[in-house]
Amino acid sequence: MTVVTRFAPSPTGFLHIGGARTALFSYLYAKRFGGKFLLRIEDTDRERSTQEAVDAIFEGMAWLGLKSDFDEIYQTRRFDRYKEVVQQMLAAGTAYHCYASKEELEQLRAEQMARKEKPRYDGRWRPEPGKTLPTPPAGVQPVVRFRNPADGQVVVRDLVKGEIVFDNRELDDLIIARADGTPTYNFCVVVDDWDMGITHVIRGDDHVNNTPRQINILQALGATPPAYAHVSMILGSDGAKLSKRHGALGVMEYRAMGFMPEAMLNYLVRLGWSHGDQELFTHEEMIAKFDFDHVSASPSRFDMEKAYWVNHQYLKTADLGLIAGEFDWHLRRLNLDPANGPDLKAVIEQQRERCRTLLEMAEKSKFFFADLDGYNEKDAAKHLTAESATLLEALDHALAALPDWDVPALHAAVNGFAETRGLGLGKVAQPIRVACCGMAVSPPIDQTLFLLGRERTLARLKAAVSFARSKT
RNA sequence: GCUCCCAUCGUCUAGAGGCCUAGGACGGAGCCCUCUCAAGGCUUAAACCCGGGUUCGAAUCCCGGUGGGAGCGCCA
């Protein structure tokens, strides 16, 4: 049997971190067993579903590289099928019409709560042998309810939580089709998972309580229930639940913060899952090693510091071309022209060790791609002094005389310059940094000047000299 | 309220009864290296929620408590 998993978000917002991890686990599990992974848009709630959200989810999935093996599926395009199954169940007696109004049900719930009972449908329209049903009120469109077994138990063998037992007495008859005829969530999932041959349902653990009902519906349909894996949720760093109001960010916002998609995946896969002490995984390793035996049942917190660290590991080691694509995106976002400067890969090679994010890298590389917009105040005060002006002026001449503008030549020139003057390299390099980069932080000075190029370097040295002299 | 889930350093976790005087990683502290910032190397502080059992032996199994969380919609 080939494994088929699915990621089934409802398009009511962007793809958040928890959803991304669920998608990743589903994807990895399918790939691990040479199976298929599909994306299904659960848009049966037409009030809340939006096209923007659908697009946002696709965008997030694409950025992360979680490709579906099929075209996306929309539940709204499967209404005929759901109706067909509802009719089937009605005919089989596993579902029935219920004419209770919303007001009526609300009152029922209120009464039950007051009596400290679990609020649930009381089965007033549920057909029983020998029971006389009320007469349907005129002009009321009924909903369709599933006839849940009255007793017995449902055992969910959850891949992460183990065996969970539910008493059927705790389950009421849920609505599977609204008065307007549209199907509801719990029903659509069941029909879809069944029709699409889903073998493993991997989802957030806020769904565990739905699982026994879904299993009952499946059984009423004569279908074999899939395996379930309920993954616990991801909390904010303060341990509070993530929500739009509280720190829930879309995956694309992590892109804006400067994360590599591969790093994001790596951080996410380790959140709740482990493989011994291993922290870093290639895409292939994730696929080969992922399993539910080592998925934690308890919720975990999103730790930004660790995420940054993982990202940094990727920046330090990933293929330059791969990084360049994202780096380019960030430069443009800062209104910089990637073409107006050194080769991106060469810049990345020099900056990758000192930046935890691509955003940071772009910001620290501005001076390679645009004219200086002034000097960092503190750095200039410290390093662009009257005496360093003399130094920089001499350096300007020395460097201008260089026959070749390459790293060894620049290295020799700057070091030799410092040596002949009996100065430590720092005394020379720091003023150059501020002059050429606008600040006292940059890659090694020889590399920096090389990448900056002769023209820009010499011009900036001259500008710094007059700047230093202009301040009294 | 009812049902269900969860519980190892601040955080992510290793740990499937003896290998645990509890390991790794992030973050923290300190030292070394150093042209800046980093990176790197070394050292260090830091945890089995509590109480009962089971067992020769429990972080690991069972029960109870406590504390968190989820669900209880004609939402998904």
In short:
ATP binds at residue 244. Helices cover 47% and strands 10% of the residues. The chain has 472 residues and is mainly alpha-helical.
Describe this structure in words.
- The mean pLDDT is 94.
- Strands 1-2-3 form a 3-stranded parallel beta sheet, with helices on one face.
- The protein is built from 20 helices and 12 strands.
- Helix 1 packs across helix 9, helix 17 (407-420) crosses helix 18 and helix 18 packs parallel to helix 19.
- The longest helix has 17 residues, at 454-470.
- The chain folds into 4 domains: 4-71 and 234-306, Rossmann fold; 77-183, Alpha-Beta Complex (Glutamyl-tRNA Synthetase, domain 3), CATH 3.90.800; 319-369, Helicase, Ruva Protein, domain 3, CATH 1.10.8; 377-470, Arc Repressor Mutant, subunit A (Orthogonal Bundle), CATH 1.10.10.
- Helices cover 47% and strands 10% of the residues.
- With 472 residues, it is mostly helical.
- Strand 9 (200-204), helix 6 (211-220) and strand 10 form a beta-alpha-beta unit.
- The structure holds one RNA strand of 76 nucleotides.
